[in-house]
Amino acid sequence: MKEQNFRQIQEKLNGVTRRDFMKFCSAVAAGMALPEAVVPKIAHAISSPQRPPVIWLHGSECTGCSMSLLRSEHPSIEKLIFDLISLDFHETLSAGAGHQAEGALHQAVEENYGKFILVVEGAIPLKDGGIYCQVGGKNFVDSVKEIGAQAGAVIAVGSCASWGGVAAMEPNPTECVGVQSVLTDKTVVSIPGCPPNPYNLLSTVIHYLTFNKLPALDKKNRPKFAYGRLIHEHCERRPHFDNGRFARQFGDEGHRQGYCLYYLGCKGPVTYANCSTSQFGDAGSGCWPVAIGHPCFGCAEQGVGFHMPQFSTSPVLHATPAAEHAPITVERGQGVSAGSAALMAGLGGAAIGAGAVFTAKLGTKGSADEDEKA
């Protein structure tokens, strides 16, 4: 980026150095798995005065997604909403109230017809016409339909907006659904989580600003750069899983040693997210529970968080080979070797119990032929 152009950006970003600004742009590109060559484009997009505004609406939710946004530190909230994404309307952060706030919302929509990015936080009740969630005397479902039809892009932030989340737990008395179930004729990007990672949202918005299109999405309309891999695949405790080391109870020796939390109900094997590699909350481990010894709840995965019992074991979608090779032979009378345990843990996955029975048999007496058949 030319130095004379950056001087204008530096004034706009309240004295942020060129080095820090470009480091931030590089981090955003890396987080989206984009090449270094796009960094200048990202820098230009987020510093352009012609950025599309972001309009943020609230439905049936706890405002935890907004609280997650408020806790972002890289960048800080004031630089985020004023300098990077042009947050033009957000009910929780609005200085106005009542008619003032509603007037600001409609003005932002009218002045940016077809250009603004609509972010929806919270589920949408449908029962009885949607009367169980009203804002400004209007059913929320009607507001989403009206404003969503005029948006350039729509993002559902949080699990409630993505597919109903906690608001849609059985028996779901108000028939809450996600945004995609209401705006069926538009592509709604889902940023699930409870709360979601604010940097996933920021990166999605910046990708749209930079390339004028949404990032690559998976079959559930989640950005692949953030939800393309299972938590289980990049968890810091994965080596313990591969080598058969598990905590069986909270506070036991394995738990104190930092072993895998699979048997304590970890939902990492069935949850697609980048929680372990892109932490947030800026409070040590932040919103990554595995780092502090609690199993993943699976809040970012539809049908897992808020649906599967918290401390029940989950299936393992992708069982991969162990990190170490098992030996060809097994010593008699010595029980199960570390290599055999690793092999069983890596290949067993959901069938770890059956694998344990099989490995136990290896330590019992019998002929070599019987072992080979087993």
Short description:
By secondary structure, the chain is α/β, with parallel strands linked by helices.
Secondary structure layout:
Blueprint: H1 3-12, H2 18-31, H3 39-47, E1 54-58, H4 64-70, H5 77-84, E2 87-90, H6 99-111, E3 117-121, E4 124-125, E5 134-135, E6 138-139, H7 140-148, E7 153-157, H8 159-163, E8 176-177, E9 188-191, H9 198-211, H10 224-227, H11 238-242, H12 253-256, H13 338-348, H14 352-362, H15 368-373
Parallel strand pairs: 1-2, 1-3, 3-7, 7-9
Antiparallel strand pairs: 4-8, 5-6
Describe the overall structure.
It is a single chain. By secondary structure, the chain is of the alpha/beta class. It has 2 domains: 177 residues, NADH:ubiquinone oxidoreductase-like, 20kDa subunit (Rossmann fold), CATH 3.40.50.700; 132 residues, Cytochrome-c3 hydrogenase, C-terminal domain (Cytochrome-c3 Hydrogenase, Chain A, domain 2, Irregular), CATH 4.10.480.10. It is built from 15 helices and 9 strands. It has a 5-stranded parallel beta sheet with strand order 2-1-3-7-9, sandwiched between helices. Strands 4-8 form a two-stranded antiparallel ribbon. Strands 5-6 form a two-stranded antiparallel ribbon. Strand 5 and strand 6 form a beta hairpin. The radius of gyration is 24 Å and the shape is globular. The C terminus is likely disordered.
